[in-house]
Amino acid sequence: MKKLVISILFVMSVVFSFAQTGTGFYGKVVDSKTQKPLQNVIASIQNTNQTQFTDASGKFIFRDAPEGSQLLQIKSSGYKTQLITVDVEKGKMVDIGIVVFDEDITEEQQLSLITITENDLGDDNSGSESTSGLLQASRDAFQQAAAFNWGQARFRIRGLDNEYGTTMINGMVMNKIYDGRPQWSNWGGLNDATRNQEFTMGSAPSDYTFGGILGTQEINTRASIYRPGSRISFSGTNTNYSWRAMGTHASGMNKDGWAFVVSASRRWAQEGYFEGTDYSANSLFASVEKKFNDKHSLNFTSIFAQNSRGKNSPNTDEVTKLAGVKYNSYWGWQDGQKRNSRDKDVEEPINMLSHYWKITDKTTLNTNVSYQVGSIANSRLDYRNTAYGIDSNGNSSVLHDPTYYKNLPSYYTSLYENDPTLVPSSEYLPGGLGGLYIGNTPQNLAYASLARQTFLSNKQLDWNAMYQANLNNPTGESFFVLYEDRTDDKLWSANSIINSQVADNITVNGGVNFKKLKSHNYQYLSDLLGGDFFSDRDSFYTGNQSQSDLNNPNRIVGVGDTYGYNYNLLATTYDAFSQFKFTYNKVDFYLAQSYSHSEYQREGLYQNGLYESNSLGKSEKVKFDNFGFKGGLTYKITGRHFINFNGAYMTKAPSLRNAFPNARLNNNITNNLESENVSSADISYVIRTPKFKSRLTAYASKINNAIETSFFFAEGLLGDDNGDGGDAFVGETVSGISKKHIGGELGMEYNLTSTIKLTATAAYGEFTYDNNPNVQVNDDSQASATNTYPVVDFGKAKLKDYRLSGTPQQAASFGVEYRDPKFWWIGANANYLGNNYIDIAPVLRTERFGIDPLDVNGLTFTEATNERARQLLKQEKFDDITLVNLVGGKSWKVGNQTFGFFASVNNVFDKVYKTGGYEQARNSNYRELNQDVSSGTPSFAPKYFYGYGRTYFVNLYINF
């Protein structure tokens, strides 16, 4: 026995001696409340590639650290990141002692971010417009301000749409092939389960993908990396939902090599911030890992997030002044309940199997296979062209839209007499109106007053009147129905990512990805609104042209039937990337390259009457081969001051959405369809010390050959071939667009004391169109057997130097935060946001704008002047705004449980502000626009979206 004890002591002394040899340091991380050791905490030496994870006893060790003063970063999800200065001496192992890790009680702020990212503006089945979701994992002062302080005003980092960023789950790209954007709702409400994230900014290197020029977000759902324990929370807010309940449990890895995580949440509201915006969402998450040995693990992740919400309408200034900022024309009363006609329903579960292979101590391979299936549905009303009916007050009205232009006072006060025999000749001279203003006649003023009273007394959808109109039809056919634009996707994905440290200072990353998509798009009849059936024909056309499917003419449809349009979009993509990162004493640099291949095809399931020969069956395949190159370096002035540079050039396949400009009706492919060319460069000066952190960045990005598509009804746009005055419902394709994004970013964070932190951030950008792109307009009414691509080339749109829309281009923030040692905190920030512009209509900036469609010789309007045209086409700039926000929280330790709450109040002073808007292109020529605007009460004024007023978020939670 004595020999055994001596042997054990000898072995322990050898091990202890070995642990203390080398040049470096070691320590231990414990929880500040429980004093228990923390496992899987990331310890990394800044400006090197040296990273360690704490073991089960909370310990970490670096045996080959660089000599001199080093900055050690300690971070883990749910805790406040720490920076510690360590002086490393050659041949010595320094014991830095116990690192006490404080809970990040501000994390509740980050877990509330989903209230921002789920508010997308679009009516189509695409992803969110906001880039705030990319920023949940970030700790950079600038990025935090962009997400939490400026996100409510729809601020976009560097003015970029989120299709230029990459969002991943376990290395699997989540951006949709359809439009290149992630669908945040696919994992909405699972904040606890998706908190393990890594983020890169701009084109900086990622270990998982080549990425874009906005940044990357990697969400890791491997069960073994979650901190063991349980959490229950309950929240209340007055944003897009009212209540949220969430529960999560993580087991940690047991002795048999199993780990699992489960999470569930529910969010709901009878009515959100805007009128009639109901909300209901249920989310489930499960992740199970089996560790077979030290080299192999399998993980299965399943995510189900069902989301249904009512949309709110964009409104003109006229409507907002009449009905208020919160007014929403999409809803109406039915049986004592508010019913929204424009619901968005998302249900696309994700199932993913991941294999983790530790080939050697320095090489790992992660392989994933996923299958995602489900649907996105956007509901709306369909109606016959006899859209008038008798409302509940006995008035004749357009029932499907209370804000239909003929229902509003401005219809009467913007009227002109345009009969040339009644118009004074002076109105056709330069500077005239081309018509006689009659909107101020007693008769029209009386009509306008009556329209105002009628609108105010019945400003919502009249469901009862629509039901009654259908029930009163003796044929049983519905005049009004509710339908859904449905997208049912089936997506198979697979990838493999390798990470290898081939030398002490060289790391290699690489990956291959494959996706195969079948996207079924169709019109689904969901409610006959009291009628017996609906006719599957377009009442705006006659004969064969009115038929959606010539193989089933005059088809009668009911609830659950497909009608109108029906087609598949097929896509296959694969890509590969490699990346080499080099680390030296004074300089780090990286080089990366990528290749991708994309194939798109449309398969028509209906033979449309307008496009008999090119709507049914498969289209030609469109194929794109794309390449990307990027590189960057970090120059270490000292261990705390360094300069970063990143540069990238890549080509990017057009989205599936833009490849087929009129996919609902035909197989036509966009003319001159080319890949985008994207280039970007940025340079940053970074200071990182335990008390002060800052980053100053200058950047420039250029996007060439972009394509945008839209649909609208235009008056006076085309030639008067059919006696219609050039009026038509058209599809617009703008191609060859160049966009320029230049600007700067500043973020500073200073710990004034151990309890007080100050932050200051600023963004300045100039985001503009950089050329005059080409505009083509598709007019279905011109389609025939000999004209299967009825496109009119409008030539160049003079867009150069117009501002890009959708984001403030200037922003600034100042904040102060107090953290008490007794685990409570409070903070406040003031934010300025400016230079936000309206989305302009390209077709109004073409030469056609000045041409009289009624003139047989195609001459311009005689009254038109360049000065007036410039006034009409001047881009609207929204008012600058200042928003003040308050945040705070408190946590308590009771036994083995932690109780806490978080609360925030945004827009404390209840400022009313516009977050976006767009010009209506209905008045598509000079005369019509000039008359409408000159009336002082334009009938087709721009429509706007508004931000939230004063809102709150309160969250109560318990961890155990």
Helix content: under 10%
Biggest sheet: strands, sense, closure?
Answer: 26 strands, antiparallel
Low-confidence stretches: 7-19, 110-123, 127-138
Provide the β-strand percentage band.
over 45%
Q: Report the strand count.
A: 47
Helix/strand class: mainly beta
DSSP helix count? 11
**What spatial form do the alpha-carbon principal axes imply?**
globular
**Oligomeric state of the chains in view:** single chain
Please tell me the overall pLDDT. Answer: 90
Q: What is the straight-line distance between the termini?
A: 44 Å
Gyration radius over CA: 31 Å
Q: In words, what does this structure look like?
A:
There is one protein chain. The strands form nine sheets. The chain has a 26-stranded antiparallel sheet that branches. Strands 3-2-5-6 form a four-stranded antiparallel sheet, with no helix packed on it. Strands 9-8-11-10 form a four-stranded mixed sheet, with no helix packed on it. The protein is mainly beta. Helix content is 10%, strand content 46%. The two termini are 44 Å apart.
